[in-house]
């Protein structure tokens, strides 16, 4: 994972990746620009597994952070012009909630 994500993200100065166990890793960026680029490029995956990213606050235990929410942007293609209404948006949102089990 270390070499793959480092090659993919190209951190400005460098990155330290620590395996915390329990399928958790800590990514420490040595320059804010590298961190911001990774956050803006979310969501990320590794070996078909979603990487849930969280910015730790000072003193926060990374093993106690509840990783339960990821924000996605969903694009809907093929809706004829004039047919995309608020009602359709609510229907699509309901479908996505059902599909993803939210």
Describe this structure in words.
Pfam families: DUF4283. This is DUF4283 domain-containing protein. The structure is a single chain. The chain is an alpha+beta fold. It has a domain at 2-51. Helices cover 31% and strands 19% of the residues. The chain has helices spanning 2-9, 32-40, 86-100, and strands at 15-21, 24-29, 44-46, 49-51. Strand 3 (44-46) and strand 4 form a beta hairpin.
Q: From the helix content, strand content and strand pairing, which structural class follows?
A: alpha+beta
Specify the number of helices: 3
- N/C terminus separation: 29 Å
Portion in strands: 15-25%
Shape summary: elongated
Assembly of the depicted chains: single chain
Q: Work out the radius of gyration.
A: 18 Å
The residue-averaged pLDDT reads 89
**Low-confidence segments, ≥5 residues, pLDDT <50?**
none
| Largest β sheet strand count, sense and barrel closure | 2 strands, antiparallel
The share of residues in helices is 25-40%
What's the number of extended β-strand segments?
4
Strand order of the largest sheet: 1-2
Would you list the SSEs in sequence order as H and E? HEEHEEH
Organism: Gossypium lobatum
Protein name: DUF4283 domain-containing protein
Domain DUF4283: 1-62
